[in-house]
Design goal:
This protein is of the alpha/beta class. The chain has three domains: about 110 residues, Hypothetical Protein Ychn, Chain: A (3-Layer(aba) Sandwich); about 140 residues, DsrEFH-like (Hypothetical Protein Ychn, Chain: A), CATH 3.40.1260; about 140 residues, Hypothetical Protein Ychn, Chain: A (3-Layer(aba) Sandwich). Helices cover about 30% and strands about 20% of the residues. Helix 1 crosses helix 14, helix 6 runs parallel beside helix 7 and helix 11 packs parallel to helix 12. It starts with a strand and ends with a strand.
């Protein structure tokens, strides 16, 4: 059976769970109705939801619990909860377990340190869903440490990858570049910078590779770039030794490889391999896993929308089949006419969208139910941004057009 997984860390709204429910229904009712008639073997799952952090609250809240119950009523769906995070938050999943005892897992595997580890389960599930077995596991990180617990999660995930003897990559983007800052000295939290240095030593002792790459544009905006060696290598005296600040292209180079890339809020969709699309001139380009970027946040409150569009354009420029979907709060970027004053030191995101939407290897979509939910309409000038509904969203995720050889699609939440 084709297997897919979602790794969910941030707060889950009813809206997000509802569109996830809808695309799962599309998968089972339209693409694989035979799964509705046959029971799978114990332990098998077509969809695995790996849930940690604030996403765990959704398993017990009034608005989201009924949606989870619908999702679990579909065949071959499993939820694996982070036991330590459940205990930390005092959350119970007993109601879900009573209805679906074999589908809701609230205990974790044992790590090499003798303690249970949700991240060992993450790595195990992710590797099972990947062919061939990956020798490298990457992790895309977007948030600063200490202000967010996601920095510690990145450390634990990479440590779990080393346990299974996989080389590891860390890709730091947006505020994620702060993970490599030198001289971190938290008094109440695990030191993320020191943790990265220790992971680097552990990987080296096991004969494994560990590269840490940070986006040069994001680093420069935050004061990390100090000088250029004249060969395109930016050197900073305010990062740990192993941390490398490079052009975004260097990070995208890694996305052209067919290895696992995890992150705080991501999904991996398994797809059948097919012949190359004519648009690809080389087998190398065709072997790059397609990338779907879900823009879920409002346009100007954070850097997420601009960062997502820049990342998508960089992927497409290097020949990776890329699609951007404005969904949830992200649709606010598409409504009305955005105007900036002459002295505004910012950029008009609608102009950025218009430029990106014309890129080769890139398709841009607006999720119409999100527009309807907010009682807004799409700017009529965005003719290159196609409206999609529930069916089309399921089609884009599980049955996209165009040939590729990677066998899986990367889904990134911004």
């Amino acid at each position: 059976m084709t297997a897919h997984f979602f790794l969910l860390e941030e707060m889950l709204t009813q809206e997000r769970l509802t569109w996830i429910e809808e695309v799962l229904k599309f998968y089972f009712l339209k693409l694989y109705p035979e799964f509705l008639l046959h029971h799978t073997k114990p332990g098998e799952a077509a969809f695995t939801f790996l849930v940690t952090g604030d996403a765990l609250y959704s398993l017990n809240e009034q608005d989201t619990l009924p949606v989870w119950e619908i999702i679990l009523s579909l065949p071959s769906v499993k939820i694996i909860c982070d036991r330590q995070e459940l205990d930390l938050r005092g959350i119970s999943v007993e109601r879900l377990k009573m209805k679906s005892p074999e589908q809701v897992i609230d205990h974790n595997s044992m790590g090499m340190n003798g303690q249970t580890s949700f991240w060992k389960d993450v790595v195990k599930i992710a590797r099972q869903n990947h062919e061939p077995l990956p020798s490298t596991i990457g992790y895309l990180h977007l948030e600063s440490p200490y202000m967010h617990s996601s920095g510690l999660n990145a450390l634990m995930c990479l440590a779990a990858a080393i346990e299974v003897r996989a080389s590891i990559d860390l890709y730091c983007y947006l505020d994620g570049v702060h993970l490599g800052h030198i001289n971190q000295n938290p008094t109440e939290c695990q030191n993320i910078g020191k943790g990265l240095e220790e992971l680097s030593c552990r990987a080296e002792q096991r004969g494994l590779q560990f590269q840490m790459l940070a986006c040069g544009r994001c680093a420069a905006a935050r004061g990390y770039s100090t000088w250029d060696d004249g060969k395109g290598v930016t050197v900073s005296t305010c990062t740990i030794k192993q941390f490398k600040i490079r052009d975004l292209k260097v990070i995208i180079d890694q996305f052209e490889r067919n290895h696992l890339i995890l992150g705080g809020n991501v999904a991996s969709i398994r797809q059948k391999k097919s012949v190359l699309s004519p648009r690809y001139s080389t087998a190398d380009k065709g072997s790059a896993p397609p990338v779907t970027i879900l823009i879920t946040t409002s346009p100007y409150g954070t850097e997420h929308t601009f960062g997502a569009l820049s990342f998508a354009a960089a992927c497409a420029y290097q020949g990776i089949q890329t699609q951007v979907i404005f969904i949830e709060e992200g649709v606010y970027a598409l409504t009305g006419n955005h105007h900036l004053g002459e002295e505004t030191q910012y950029f008009n995101l609608q102009e950025v969208i218009a430029a990106v939407a014309e890129s080769e290897n890139l398709q841009v979509y607006a999720y119409h139910p999100s527009l309807i939910r907010r009682r807004i309409t799409k700017n009529k000038n965005f003719t290159a941004v196609l409206d999609i509904g529930k069916t089309e969203l399921g089609q884009l995720l599980f049955n996209p057009s165009g040939g590729y050889q990677a066998g899986h699609q990367r889904v990134l939440f911004f």
